[in-house]
Amino acid sequence: MAGRDKRRRAAPLEGDEQQLRRRLEEAALLLRRIKGLVRWIVEEVAAGRSPSIVLHRYRNYCSSADSASPSPCACSYDIPVGTDVLSLLHKDYHTSRLNVLLRVLFVVQQLLQQNKHCSKRDIYYMYPSIFVEVAVVDRAINDICILFKCSRHNLNVVPVVKGLVMGWIRFMEGEKKVYCITSVNAAFSIPVDIEAIKDVVSVAHYILVVEKETVFQRLANDKFCERNRCIVITGRGYPDIPTRRHVLLFIKFLLHISQPLSQFYILFPS
């Protein structure tokens, strides 16, 4: 009976094309700035000079995000609390820090050119002997964000996604098919790149967000989605940014295609 219901496909939302174009333009601009910086450093070294980069220090920069905001980053452009001068030829701590920054910048350049995404842990495992620990990569990413006045999302560096989704929805993540609707009680990982989501199809009547993975698993075991035309999402505790952004995306799609408006519920322990 459920399979006979007409599936609702979301038409392209107004502004999506403009958002994609703006994102491509931002990536192209960032690539030009990265290439310009690297070219300047090479020219300075070739001329026998010691290139120096001045980085402002902030109390909080690109380290957290407002849980109510769909933005992937909470970068701060407030008054800096100090500055660091990184020099390549001076044999001190800043030399190593600049070396790490350039290594990470090279990875970021490849990600932008290939339109790929990875986590800071993925970057760490590319050069573990140089980076030593993930925290070193994290600081380099922060330095790059400050240097270019951008967010980690602009660098295509994303957090490791821990969110799960199940229910009456299917979509494409780039060329990858995510067909929750063919097995509504099975858990699927939340995709990393929200901009790659397309061709969303759903017959869900509402979205249910649960805080705990144990509750999510109980609903799956009880075949909750099989008996209720819904989408269930969990952040497995405190939700990460990709999970929050996908909740907003799915709500946006359901509101766009549903008459009357779909409903949205949050279930958390008291």
Automatic annotation (TrEMBL):
Q: Which residues form the Spo11/DNA topoisomerase VI subunit A N-terminal domain?
A: 97-157
Named cofactor requirement(s):
Mg(2+)
Residues making up the signal peptide according to the UniProt record: none
Which GO MF terms does the UniProt record name? ATP binding; DNA binding; DNA topoisomerase type II (double strand cut, ATP-hydrolyzing) activity; metal ion binding
- Catalytic residues, per the record, are Y125
Q: Can you cite an annotated GO cellular component?
A: chromosome
Q: Which domain of life is it from?
A: Eukaryota
Reactions accelerated catalytically: ATP-dependent breakage, passage and rejoining of double-stranded DNA
UniProt keywords (A-Z) are: DNA-binding, Isomerase, Magnesium, Metal-binding, Topoisomerase
Residue spans making up a coiled coil are: none
User: Which is a GO BP term held by this UniProt record?
Assistant: DNA metabolic process
Q: Per the database record, which ranges form the Topoisomerase 6 subunit A/Spo11 TOPRIM domain? A: 206-247
Pfam families hit by this protein: TOP6A-Spo11_Toprim, TP6A_N
Give the Enzyme Commission number. 5.6.2.2
Transmembrane residue ranges: none
Keyword check for Cell membrane: no
What InterPro entries does the entry give? Spo11/TopoVI_A, Spo11/TopoVI_A_N, Spo11/TopoVI_A_sf, TOPRIM_Topo6A/Spo11, WH-like_DNA-bd_sf
Q: Tell me its family.
A: Belongs to the TOP6A family.
Report the protein name in the record.
DNA topoisomerase (ATP-hydrolyzing)
* Source organism of the structure: Zea mays
